[in-house]
Structure formats: structure tokens, C-alpha cells
Specification:
With 258 residues, the protein is an alpha+beta fold. It folds into two domains: 29-135, no CATH class; 166-257, no CATH class. It has eight helices and 15 strands. A hairpin with a 4-residue loop joins β14 (242-247) and β15. It comes from Cytobacillus eiseniae. This is Oxalate:formate antiporter.
Length: 258
């Protein structure tokens, strides 16, 4: 599955709010998110969007993306929408049974990117709520189960590496590499740092013949990504708190740090 040619963000900011089941991120885009978690997503109820090929639900007065159009919206330039907000759901029939209170809460979510109560609905059986402003720049994503976060991250990081780091072969020819996914168990070791707010920089990978090291800095809690990026520029030359390390010979991942 390929998207239209768009630039790849080569740093990831991630802050977990575990109590309220959401993350704030920079650098992870809708295409990357849905490609990694494609088998867990059925339909999308669109809360804020500019997608022109959605179906319309008369009960909620919202458009939605049925499963057979999911790849189409994945290949849209949703960054250009400005605000792009959705909640996944299992069965179309369930939309017609959604209580008025839940519909009101979804309107509030899409408008303010804040919840009135945790936005997981039995009628919808949703796993996610995805609230983006300039997709990939500021994303607030709710997870019913944070295992999905680690799974997604474990796929997105190696994909970004393959897209941004071109290595030379023995003949001196540049070639793209592919890297194995990072196991969720490895990424869970970073959870205490994620709760403080971390920056993972594919841009600043250090490597030698044996390994590749992705630096991770604890950077704090940000809602303004211009401020976050300025802080990144301030600390990029400082020692990092942790590293994701890829062993080129064994093709295995490890994490080092506090």
C-alpha cells in the first residue's frame, strides 16, 4: 500500500496521558497510523474532515468512511484538511442506535479536541479517537488499549528509517533498507519516559558497521509543536536519556537507557 508522494517527518514527539487514555504526538501521520493498525480498523465516523467521498448517516448527521473506502482516505492529503478528526466503529447499524448524549459528546470532541468523558462507546466498539490539526503536526489520539500504541510505534519507526536513511552497498550504490518491527515488549520499557514526553529522532541516527542507534531525549509536555521543535533544536547536541539500538548482524532491536 503506497500513498501519494509526501514528505516524511523524521522526528517523533510522544507524550502519554495514561490516566485519560490518550497521547499527544508530532511526526506520526494518518497514513502511517492506519497502515500499522489496518487490521484493527473497520469504519471511520468523520467528526472534522474534507473527504469528499464519504457516506452519510442520517441518525448522527455525520459522514463516515466504510471499510471498502478506507484505503482511499488513507491516500488523501489529510494534512491539507487542517482539522481531521474521526472515531472508528465496528458496525454501521450501531450508528443508528447511538444515544443523543453520545452524539453530543462526539460533536464536542471534534470541535474542541477534548472529551467530556472517556470516548469509548459500547455501541461503536471503538478502539481509537483520532484528533489531528495539520495531520502529523499535532495529533491527539485516544487508545482503548495502549498495546495498540506500542504495536503501531514498533512498525512506524522502522518504516521511517527505511524511507529516510539510505545506506550504501558494498559497490557504493545507494539502496533503501528494510528493518524489522520493534517488539512491543521493548518499547514498553520506554513507558516511564513517554509519560514525561519524549523525542525519538530518526534524523539523528548514529551508526557504524555493527549497529544503528536512535537517540531518545526526555523533552517534556508540549501542546504547541513550534515550542517543542525549538526545544529539540536546543537539546539535540546533549546526551540522550535512552537509545533504540538495531544490531545489523542479528537484525534485532534493544533499548538502552534509564
Amino acid at each position: 500500500m503506497k500513498r501519494k508522494n509526501q514528505g516524511i517527518r523524521d522526528i517523533i514527539y510522544l507524550h502519554i496521558n495514561e490516566r485519560e487514555h490518550y497521547t499527544i504526538t508530532y511526526g506520526i501521520e494518518f497514513f502511517e497510523f492506519t497502515q500499522a493498525l489496518f487490521d484493527t480498523i473497520n469504519h471511520l465516523l468523520l467528526l472534522k474532515h474534507q473527504f469528499e467521498d464519504g457516506d452519510f448517516n442520517m441518525h448522527t448527521l455525520h459522514e463516515f468512511v466504510p471499510n471498502d473506502k478506507l484505503e482511499k482516505v488513507m491516500n488523501e492529503n489529510v494534512y491539507g484538511y487542517g482539522n481531521f478528526c474521526w472515531i472508528d466503529f465496528e458496525e454501521e447499524e450501531a450508528l443508528n442506535e447511538l444515544p443523543s448524549q453520545a452524539i453530543a459528546e462526539l460533536l464536542y470532541l471534534g470541535h474542541l479536541k477534548e472529551h467530556l468523558k472517556l470516548p469509548f462507546y459500547n455501541h461503536l466498539s471503538n478502539r481509537y479517537v483520532y484528533l489531528a490539526h495539520d495531520d502529523g503536526w499535532f495529533n491527539k489520539t485516544y487508545y482503548r488499549d495502549f498495546n495498540d500504541l506500542y504495536r503501531m510505534l514498533g512498525e512506524v519507526i522502522p518504516v521511517k528509517m527505511g524511507q529516510t536513511k539510505v545506506e550504501k552497498s558494498l559497490l557504493g550504490l545507494k539502496k533503501k533498507r528494510t528493518y524489522p518491527n520493534i517488539a512491543s515488549e521493548i518499547l514498553r520499557h520506554l513507558k516511564p519516559l513517554m509519560k514525561e514526553g519524549i523525542l525519538i529522532s530518526i534524523k539523528d541516527i548514529e551508526q557504524n558497521r555493527a549497529r544503528m542507534e536512535i537517540p531518545i531525549w526526555v523533552i517534556g509536555d508540549f501542546s504547541d509543536m513550534d515550542d517543542m521543535y525549538e526545544e529539540y533544536k536546543n537539546i539535540v547536541n546533549d546526551p540522550c536519556e535512552a537509545k533504540l539500538v538495531f544490531d545489523k548482524k542479528s537484525r534485532e532491536w534493544k533499548v538502552y537507557g534509564r
